[in-house]
Design goal:
CATH topology: Uracil-DNA Glycosylase, subunit E
Bound molecules: iron/sulfur cluster
Helix content: 25-40%
Number of domains: 1
Shape: globular
Order of helices and strands: HHEEHHEHEHEEHH
Radius of gyration: 17 Å
Largest sheet: 6 strands, mixed
Distance between the termini: 13 Å
Length: about 260
């Protein structure tokens, strides 16, 4: 039986596969894990975006008072989760004093508190909080990544920086062969994911007309469903633009979609 979300080999159309992975029909789990580990090694050494490299390192050296005794990660932040994940969560970028400090996606800031509470409630995380990369938190069937892997000043990456970083997202997508639901957090993540998805030869019918909005749902190729949510940034959660109930409804729907398969 074919894994959920797997595109049947005979229906694959690889118009463009810059990763060199997506077009390989037979690729073992072991090999995908190995390629993911290689990707991680490359990623953490990446210095492609001079502005972001300078910013991540400056923030890591200067720190903030409340974390002055901690050693900041200060490098690109790798994705977190299993290569067999059925749920993919795509965020914007590491927070300057969150993941840029802890070295793990959505770990150590209020956005992460929101995300992990939702993931725990719906069965993808073994606890509702995420404080450090060695806190023992385990994910089940979930993979968390971001459009950009270095913290941008004011949380605003440039178009060129997003394009630079797409190479990593595309390679991750090419390796995640059991995907069934993708939750994108925010407009930039929505666009970055769509570009990466189609950039490796997947199809997204109606992509041009598909707009980012909270609660939107779009069918993708291979039986994958795209759900979009506002990002759980303080800007959204403290103003009430995104409430806990709104956020949890997205993950509740993701869980329902997975149960239906
Ligand atoms: S944002 Fe991405 S491409 Fe740019 S330096 Fe960081 S890891 Fe490299």
């Amino acid at each position: 039986m074919m894994a959920r979300g797997t595109v049947p080999a005979e229906t694959m159309e690889f118009t463009h596969d810059p990763t060199g992975i997506r077009g390989r029909r037979a690729i073992s789990r072991h090999e995908r894990q190995h390629l993911l580990a290689e990707l991680r090694q490359e990623l953490v050494a990446c210095r492609l975006c001079p502005r972001l490299v300078e910013w991540r390192e400056r923030v890591a050296a200067a720190k903030v008072r409340r974390f002055r005794d901690e050693e900041y990660w200060g490098r690109p932040v790798p994705a977190f989760g299993s290569v067999d994940a059925a749920l993919l969560v795509v965020g914007l970028a590491p927070a300057a004093h969150g993941a840029n400090r802890t070295g793990r996606m959505f770990t150590g800031d209020s956005s992460g508190d929101w995300l992990f509470r939702a993931l725990h409630r719906y069965g993808w995380a073994d606890r509702p909080s995420s404080v450090g990369r060695r806190d023992g938190l385990a994910l089940e069937g979930c993979f968390i990544t971001a459009a950009v892997r270095c913290p941008p000043p004011q949380n605003k990456p440039t178009r060129a920086e997003i394009e630079n970083c797409r190479r990593y997202l595309m390679r991750e997508l090419a390796l995640l062969r059991s995907l069934h639901v993708v939750v994108v957090l925010g407009r930039i993540a929505f666009a970055a994911f769509c570009d990466a998805w189609t950039g490796i030869g997947n199809s997204f019918e109606g992509r041009e007309a598909a707009l980012f909005r909270h609660g939107a749902q779009y069918p993708l190729s291979g039986g994958v469903t795209l759900l979009s949510s506002y990002h759980p940034s303080r800007q959204n959660t403290q103003t009430g633009r995104l409430t806990r109930a709104m956020f949890h409804r997205v993950f509740s729907r993701a869980r329902r979609l997975l149960r239906e398969t």
